[in-house]
Amino acid sequence: MNTKNKRPLSGCPIDYALSVFGDRWSLLIIRDLAIKGVKTYAELLDGWEGISTNILAQRMRHLEGHGIVERRKNPDNWRSSLYELTPKGRDLAPLLSEIILWGGTYNEADAPKSEAFNIVQSDRGGFERELRQTDNTTD
Amino acid sequence: MNTKNKRPLSGCPIDYALSVFGDRWSLLIIRDLAIKGVKTYAELLDGWEGISTNILAQRMRHLEGHGIVERRKNPDNWRSSLYELTPKGRDLAPLLSEIILWGGTYNEADAPKSEAFNIVQSDRGGFERELRQTDNTTD
DNA sequence: CCTATCGACTTGCGTTATGCAAGTTGATGG
DNA sequence: CCATCAACTTGCATAACGCAAGTCGATAGG
To answer: Does A94 touch chain B if contact means CB atoms closer than 8 Å?
Structure first.
């Protein structure tokens, strides 16, 4: 994940992209923020996959440093921060679609296709448009 | 990267996809195979990014185990193996396009946009069609 | 006041992954 | 019969990750 950027990047866009989110967790965090719109640290913590808190903290710092997420104070709760995707982060929507389509096609573990797969397959444009909106807290 | 699949997968297609190629190297290997069509171990080794041989070996085993790449003997050289993408691997073409577009848009390190970015941007369909062909050794 | 609590972390420590260098294997060319 | 080449494996050091527990500061309850 190149937090310390040990290896110089090659200049290839893929190499750059992987230096930003090429690890086991970043895209899952981005997925959660894309779908939910805005989340607190605690909400991100208890996603299905169960990221541990130290990893989440450093991943959020990394993503914030790369301009993928933004942190701000929660006006309703003094002690809570809110995280949300920046435009740069929201521009990952088509990438998320493709991953969902590919993963949904080839993952045999869950016989019944995931909801995400069905949504993206039936209305990819709508899915991406929704993800691009800042206030898609349909929850 | 979940080689040992320590954590059970969530069923989310993204989680599955990341269990297959969610690390710093897999997509770079897949990129090289997609663009070059077929490569030997040695050719993969001296890509621009400089993967180390032990990592390459275990990544190829992992990708082969997940049905992304196939290994076969080189008919021209008894001691060399040839690696190429399976259909499942070639189906990652649209994902590669999206990564290239995103990475090319936001990577400020290389001011002159990478060739890959220009190609995908001007003719994404052609790019993906080419990647999907088995014998695209235009080299 | 005094203590418990909640949200967002940090710290410690053990395990896994990655990076670097060197060694292995086995057919062939010289 | 020795060096070479392609595709690895092995050893060892560092970085990343996973789990459990601790910190900190404002507030709500007693």
So the answer is: yes
- DSSP string for residues in A20-32: HH-SSSHHHHHHH
B2 touches chain A (CB under 8 A): yes
Cα–Cα dist B134/B137, whole Å? 9
Q: How far is CA B41 from CA A18, A97, A116, B56, B135, in A?
A: 22, 32, 37, 8, 18
Q: Which nucleotide is nearest to B77 (CA to C1')?
A: D6
Phi first, then psi: what are they for A107, rounded to 5°?
A: -80, 110
Tell me, what amino acid is at B12? C
Give all domains of chain A, ordered by start, each with its CATH number: 13-132 (1.10.10.10)
Q: How far apart are CA A48 and CA A45, in angstroms?
A: 9
Q: DSSP for B27-85?
A: HHHHHHHHHHSEE-HHHHHTSTT---HHHHHHHHHHHHHTTSEEEEE-TT-TT-EEEEE
Number of helical H runs and strand E runs in chain B: 8, 3
User: What would the pLDDT profile of A52-69 be if each residue is shown by its tens digit?
Assistant: 999 999 999 999 999 999
Beta carbons of B13 and A114 less than 8 Å apart: yes
Per residue in B12-30, pLDDT (tens digit) is 999 999 999 999 999 999 9
> In 3-state terms, what secondary structure has residue A76?
coil
